[in-house]
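Journal club prep — side note

Before the paper discussion, L.F. wants everyone to see what a predicted structure for a comparable chain looks like in token form. Sequence:
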Amino acid sequence: MPCEPSNQTDPKIVPLPVSADPGVAPWSDWKAFGGLIWCEWYAHSRLLLFFLAAWLACVWVMPLYANPAWILLFGGLFAIIAGPVYGGGDTSEGCEEFTFSLPPTRSERYLARLAVGGGALLLFTAMDLLALGLDLSQILAKLYVDSGLVRARPAFNSGLLYGLVAALPAAVFAFSYVISALTHSRAILLSAPLWATLFSLAALRLGLWYEELLWETFNGWVSCPLLAFLAAAVLWGGSRAFRLKEVGHQTAPIAIPAQWWLWVALSIGALVSVLALVASLAKHYHHLLRGFPR
């Protein structure tokens, strides 16, 4: 006996993004990314609030004890600490396997952490540049001089440091963030600030040498764009490499050499190189402040 055709049709199963309203899906994706940003802020809010409070306190206190130019080092200090904190948080806590199993993609996590950490660095850099532009440190120092608490100091001429105060911390943060994000090793994570400082200072010294060769002075026309280009290139390359990162030391894009003594030797060499670069730049400290021919 032939079966009569049924009036019911089989349900058509389609992926959720296809069945969803096209006008709602992008908004949902943005809300999910905003949730990642909120999570990163919540996880590291104490660090950001500590640096913000330290910046505000030091603006008023440091002129009593040190040169007002201390403010130029604040962005670099934050970059050294924040790079490994944001880039290597999963590695330091040993929860990479759990994190990678969650729905957000590696690119979304990379960009969310970069947005919070890099955004905080941009905030502190803007505050430093504003303090330089308004000559805030000299104004505050003058209050203490007028009150007799400190002696008068020579006027501070920023020179090319307007560019370096933005470009150098950005390069340090980019190197330390990418190194920390691409490794499974806590040893590399702890040494990431050392390597980031080495690469950034080496690029700065190379740019200054070229400026001295062309113009016989330090003007920042080569060193600052070079540092900015390296920061952007490293962050872009790190985002592509982070997509391929998997759990397991054998899959880490950056790993410690098999011979432990080789890693120790490399670390000592990096430390010596950093000290040599700092000593070399210290010889030209006053010329860097003024940006005038030597």
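L.F.'s comment for the group: The radius of gyration is 25 Å. Keep this in mind when we get to the figures.
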